Amino acid sequence: MPTFADARSLAETLLADHLPDRWLHVQSVAREALRISALSGVDREPLIQAAVLHDIGYSPVVARVRFHPLDGARFLTARGYDARVVALVAHHSGAAIEAGMRGVEGLDPLPDEASPTRDALWYCDAVTGPQGQRLTPDERWTEIRRRYGPDDLVTAFLDRAEPELRAAVDRTTARMDAAGLERDQASVES
Ligand SMILES: [Fe+2]
């Protein structure tokens, strides 16, 4: 079974040269995942592997149907990654909602575990900007809407998905508060 070091070097190979900003983003998502990986109910290894791998589907080497959560998940399945890591990547940050809006099929056989681990991954993605900068979730969602523009499907997706994204963030920050873990490190740094 691949380790976190394997996952990180795979992500680096796929992203660092072609998509350097995306590589900065995923490294930062992985750092935040490591920081919160001891939270109650969170399983460290699936979280940190999924964090560093969640956007590999953007790599031109990986892209097939051009829906990055599914392309990434299928690539990882073929390389023997744990089924939980595969499913976390497939469903990260509201992917099922976007798949429905785009008419992309293929996510259904993979379960959305809807667990603290999954919430933690969604949280890490929501507090990390496109070059790895720390943002609040609201800054992040504003940035995405601005980047894609009002007429893009991504903006429409975000309008629909935001309550679920926010709920995952809120559950995670509640777990961080309960553990006495700093929650605003992010916005202080940015
Ligand atoms: Fe991401």
From TrEMBL:
MF term (GO), any: transferase activity
Protein name, UniProt field: Putative nucleotidyltransferase with HDIG domain
Keywords recorded for this protein, A-Z: Transferase
Entries under NCBIfam families matching the protein: HDIG
Signal recorded as keyword: no
Organism: Actinomycetospora succinea
InterPro entries cross-referenced by the UniProt entry: HD/PDEase_dom, HD_domain, HDIG_dom
Domain (HD) ranges: 24-105
